[in-house]
Amino acid sequence: MKITIIxxxxxxxxxxxxxxxxxxPFKSIAxxxxxxxxxxxxxxxxxxxxxxxxxxxTCKDFSYINAIEKSLLEADxxxxxxxxxxxxxxxxxxxxxxxxxxxxxxHRPAPEMFGxxxxxxxxxxxxxxxxxxxxxxxxxxxxxxxxxxVFKSALMNDIIWDKLSEKKxxxxxxxxxxxxxxxxxxxxxxxxxxxxxxxxxxxxxxxxQKKVQKSGMGGLDCKYWQEHGWLDxxxxxxxx
Length: 240
Ligand SMILES: Cc1cc2nc3c(=O)[nH]c(=O)nc-3n(C[C@H](O)[C@H](O)[C@H](O)COP(=O)(O)O)c2cc1C
Description:
Blueprint: E1 2-7, H1 14-23, E2 31-36, H2 50-53, H3 62-74, E3 77-83, H4 91-99, E4 117-124, H5 129-143, E5 147-154, H6 166-184, H7 196-215, H8 220-227
Parallel strand pairs: 1-2, 1-3, 3-4, 4-5
Helix pairs in contact: 1-6
């Protein structure tokens, strides 16, 4: 199986430690590709909207985005990690997620995403892990991923792993191991079941694209929906 990891920080801190612990059951069975931000996507989206209007290949950062996207599409499991920075995901992770705006469901979602699983690993000192996880989950779910596991925690007493109380370290390790076991048990040969909420979101987007098609004003997005047969009977979660 293939795992693609996007790390929202280059720091080898607590988030890194937890991610490494999560990977333990996968190390001998998976081909793991990791990206570290901002190193692997050091540029911001400038809002030119070229990805939406003319195609993602016209983005000034296409070389970074294309490499990461190829890896995401090939992955059986996507892992996204980020500590909480001012109650949210790191700026580097947000900058990457902005670049994938064109992959949101109302635009040009990748069919591969609908059968995928993902895990979000986040932690903070006191508060903000929940909103950090939500920042990432928002994009993943609108990319079409239904099965998303979340690890979130607040360290409370220190920010350095080795300085945390033993009780805290044990609890964090136990909880991340539990999530890892849950995801290691999955048969990745079978695509994940698409949830009802994902199907409802898709239906809403389809309704919009149908209207656009009818108006005759359809651009790249509408053409993409037509080509995939989604304005007819085909659906991204139906395997041919
Ligand atoms: C810029 C910045 C902002 C932060 N904002 C928060 C915050 O809003 N809430 C919180 O509990 N911790 C906050 N922290 C602390 C980190 O989330 C915490 O130390 C975390 O354990 C760092 O993870 P790391 O070791 O993987 O870098 C912030 C840290 C930085 C550097």
